[in-house]
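User: For a reading group we're discussing how well predicted structures match intuition. Take Inner membrane-spanning protein YciB. Before you show the prediction, I'll give you the sequence so everyone sees exactly what went in.
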Amino acid sequence: MAKRDINPMLKSALELGPIVAFFVAYLWLKDRVFTIGGTEYDGFIVVTAGFVPVMVAATAALWALTGTLSRMQVVTVVLIVVFGGLSVWLNDDRFFKMKPTLIYLIFGGVLGFGLLRGQSYLRYVMEGLMPLEETGWMILTRRVTIFFLGLALANEVVWRTMSTEAWVYFKTFGLTAALFAFFLCQGGLFRRYGTGEDEA
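Assistant: Thanks. Here is the predicted 3D structure of Inner membrane-spanning protein YciB, as structure tokens, for the group to look at:
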């Protein structure tokens, strides 16, 4: 399927909408308990059960409209289905809380494997967004690898030591802010190793 451009606002809505919806629904239902089929489920599990199909639908819509999905998007939605499904099926929120850890470990591990081979796999994903010299890509990939492994550790610490509500805030805002801040701090690297291909 050929890659197609869509309205940036629509693209952002499809990518971020399910996460925002999860957060709002959790705040609304967090203190409620639902009895379904004779089993009690707390609000977090019920919201997770709704989030999984919404995320799948949004990702499918994004693929249908743009004709493409990144490997990161594919892996993310697969892990959401698997671990969200396990949380609902086993009525255990720990599986869903572990999902970000696995996502960051997988991506950090893949990038680290590429570095061991002397390659920047990050370049294959982001080259069109940030034209850099080879040295710049290797430095950025090392930094992103360490950063992802750090996020995996942070997620483990938060969900294992704090309340579910604290984890939801951390997942919705903390991880997003950390990603934004990280790339904002790479400005010096982009200026030093940028190829200038995107100046026009």
